[in-house]
Amino acid sequence: MQRKNHWFQIFVLGIILITDNIFAQHSLADLKLVFYNVENFYDWKNDPTINDEEFLPEGSRRWSKSRFEDKAMNIYKVFSAIGEFEFPAIIGMAEVENAFVLDYLMQHTPMSKVPLAYVHKDSPDPRGIDACILYRTDKLKLIKKEFIALRLKNQKIFETREIVYASFQTSNKEVLHVFVNHWPSRRGGELETQNKRGNAATVLRDKIDSIFKIEPRANIILTGDFNDEPISSSITKLLNVQQVSGSISSSGLYNLSSDFEKRFGVGTLKFRGDWSVFDQIIVSGALLNGRGLKTCTKCAGVFKAPFLLTEDKTHMGFTTRRTYNGLNYNGGYSDHLPVFLDISISRQ
User: Is 160 within the bounds of a domain?
Assistant: First the structure.
């Protein structure tokens, strides 16, 4: 009976996707990119090399195999819904524990019907949460992958999430460069931790410059949870990202997330009553100028589906529907909302 109810819910969701203007924000794209911080996607098994004790059956959250399975199905539901009529071509994720959780997601949910592969490795993060990229093998060919470590001034590796980089060849033989980020958090204070995010911005900028040196009109997408706002100095100064206005330089970087809160009425996560836009979409000018691949300022957005939100009883309005409220299991989705980008392919 539960399985029948599950498929009925998916059917109803499909009807909503077709009829509700909240979802039908764009025409069908040739390629849809999604980024989602899925918040603590852990398995239920102990890994002695990381700090995962909180997410064990005997841990403070009483994490279990059944709760993990529910979490995986919820993640699938989000990607299925955001894809509208077709599953996304590229998915960036943050806060996944390991390859096991990715394999389970791809093999034991309806995602198994989609030809997918992933780019992932265990990062040096003490909690064992990593970033990764999933991609459709029927739409994209993987050319190169790299896991970019953050380094301190003494060149020692900073124990945090690596930046995941992959380049793909599209159906019209264009090359698309994708970077998925999960920069150091603000835990301990925004000002006290800003140097850590500045380090991430500098490392990422160096890598982008190396691509532009070889390919001045490179198609580049930066996405992820930057733990900073579009107006933060790490983004505007160190990463040298601009707002979209006037003429567009093919080798410039442009933030398509700056007006998310104004356009959608929400940010990507809510803390103490205030929305922030930590999850962003940044593109090179070549994608906006659009020869082989093309996107636009309104082709990026926040996926604010009603099932991802719940009433904010403390600060009014709505907030994200999380897996836990404190230590109380809520069976929700994440403390972040997903962001997306639609890309068109020129076949001339």
Answer: yes
